[in-house]
Specification:
Blueprint: H1 2-15, H2 18-27, E1 32-33, H3 34-38, H4 45-58, E2 61-66, E3 69-74, H5 76-110
Antiparallel strand pairs: 1-3, 2-3
Helix pairs in contact: 1-4, 1-5
Length: 111
């Protein structure tokens, strides 16, 4: 479990920033060059590259350099792992709320 937890921490830390979420949204349409990804953002390329590094370390993207051009693409496996974790948490809390609802209904009927 420690690996899963640290992986999830990295994914959620990467998703916490609006710039990184915007990059993921763009990459959901297909691979892109780094310069193309950086265009909509008002920041220097080295600063933007830090965002890409964090996304790559979290496993949400992967990049490949061909000659002088670096291309980035989405790596959806980690996003699906985070989605699975959230679904598990939702199911857990839905069960707990259902149990609380049944308990409260039972108490109300006893009155």
């Amino acid at each position: 479990m420690p690996n899963r937890s640290s992986d999830l921490n990295a994914v959620f830390q990467a998703l916490a920033d609006p710039t990184r979420r915007a990059v993921l949204e763009r990459l959901s349409k297909g691979p892109a060059r780094v310069t193309e990804l950086a265009e909509p953002f008002d920041m220097a390329l080295p600063s933007f590259a830090q965002h890409l590094k964090m996304l790559e370390r979290s496993g949400l993207i992967r990049s490949e350099k061909l000659g002088r051009v670096r291309t980035v693409e989405l790596a959806p496996k980690k996003l699906k792992e985070a989605e699975r974790w959230m679904a598990e948490q939702r199911a857990l809390w839905d069960r707990r709320l259902d149990q609380l609802d049944a308990f409260l209904l039972q108490r109300k009927e006893k009155r």
